[in-house]
Structures are given as structure tokens and as C-alpha cells.
Amino acid sequence: MHIKSVNLETVCGVTSVLPENDKVEIAFAGKSNVGKSSLINALMNRKAYARTSSQPGKTQTINFYNINDEVYFVDLPGYGYAKVSLALKEKWGKLIEKYLGTSKQLRIIFLLIDIRHEPSENDKNMYDWIVHNGYNPVIIATKLDKINRSQRDKHIKMIRKGLNTVEGTPIIPFSSISKQGRDEIWELIEFTMNG
Ligand code: GDP
To answer: Among 158, 162, 95, 156, which Cα is nearest to 125's?
Structure first.
């Protein structure tokens, strides 16, 4: 898609009323530092528009990026940052639950997993939680450039097994350095927007 405009339109905290958008929403979830901002920036063709994790886990907001007035990217707060208090973790959970439970426009949830590592307990919980809410997430295996090409299939299998993904769940490897995977992710988004 040709990106004409990108606008961080709404930032929602725990007490905010979530927007009722009239365009398709595409959400991004993943633990802090997994490469979520880098992916969103790469998809939007922006160098540093989405926040990057200078203070991982500190920003407990859902950010809605309006792309071309055609589609929203919904940046969910990163999870799994150990230093965050239990109270904040609970708030985070409520915020995401509210979003997953109420959005009428949400069509795809991308769940980001670092391709190098086995999914953590938090990743598994997030995956199960998304499925429990009636969505079938698309997995993006991030930081593809950090592993050897010959290791790729093995690591994808490890992620599939770790999350115990339902059949047919796509796993798209991605690197924000080489931009490998970017076109495939956009194809999926555009297919969904037009369907
Ligand atoms: P977020 O917390 O999930 O938003 O993660 P960021 O996008 O801020 O990335 C966390 C760190 O990983 C930063 O230092 C990024 O430069 C780095 N990073 C993100 N994606 C990639 C990638 O595809 N390849 C490599 N080598 N590093 C990445």
C-alpha cells in the first residue's frame, strides 16, 4: 500500500473510552522489546513514528494510528516487563481485555514473538487469551536477521510448538533491518481490508 498519511489519532489509557472507529483495525501485541515499534514503523514507512522502548513497559496505553484514513494500526502495550508492579500489570490486562472484548472493527491480531527464543509463559498466555476472545492471531517471528538462514525452519517450528498454535495459523518471519516479510504482512492487511 502506498502510505500517504500516518496520524497517531487516539491514545487510550486504562480509564479512557475506546474509540468506535468506522475503519478496519489491525492490532499488534507482543512483549516489551520484541520489535513491535520497529515493525509498525517499517509497515508505515516511518523511521521513528511509533514509540520505541526507551522505557520498556512503562507506557500502558493503546495507540491508534490512522493510516491513509483507510485503516487503523492498534499498538497494544507491551507485556512481560519484569520491573512493572502487579497493580500496573492488572491495569494493563484490563485495558487489553476491554479492547479485545469491545472492538467491532478488529480484523487481525498480529502476535509478535522473537524468532530466537522459545515463547515465554506470557507469550503463551497472550496467545491463549487472544484465541479465547474468538480471534485467531497471525504470528510474526521478529528479528529474523539475528538467526542463521539454516536455523529458520527449526525456530519457526519451535514457536509453533511452544504456543501450540491452532492449525492453519500463519507464522511470518520478519526483520526490521532487511524488511523481509514486510510485503507479505501488507498483503495480508490489504486482503483483509478489501474482504
Ligand atoms: P518494542 O518494545 O516491541 O516496541 O521493540 P522495539 O521496536 O523498540 O525494538 C527493541 C530493540 O530491538 C531495539 O533495540 C530495536 O532496534 C531492536 N530490533 C527490533 N526489531 C529488530 C530486528 O528485526 N532486527 C534486529 N537486529 N533488531 C531489532
So the answer is: 162
pLDDT tens digits for range 114-145: 999 999 999 999 999 999 999 999 999 999 99
Q: In the chain, what are the domain boundaries? A: 6-194
* 6-194 classified as CATH 3.40.50.300: yes
Q: Name residues contacting ligand 1 (CB within 6 A).
A: 30, 32-38, 52-53, 56, 78, 142-143, 145-146, 175-177
Q: Does ipTM surpass 0.95 in this model? A: yes
Q: Please write the tens of the pLDDT for every residue from 41-78.
A: 999 999 888 876 555 555 678 999 999 999 999 999 88
For residue 34, report the distance from its CA to the centre of ligand 1, in Å. 6
Q: How far is the CA of 177 from the centre of ligand 1 (A)?
A: 9
Closest atom of ligand 1 to 56 CA is: 2
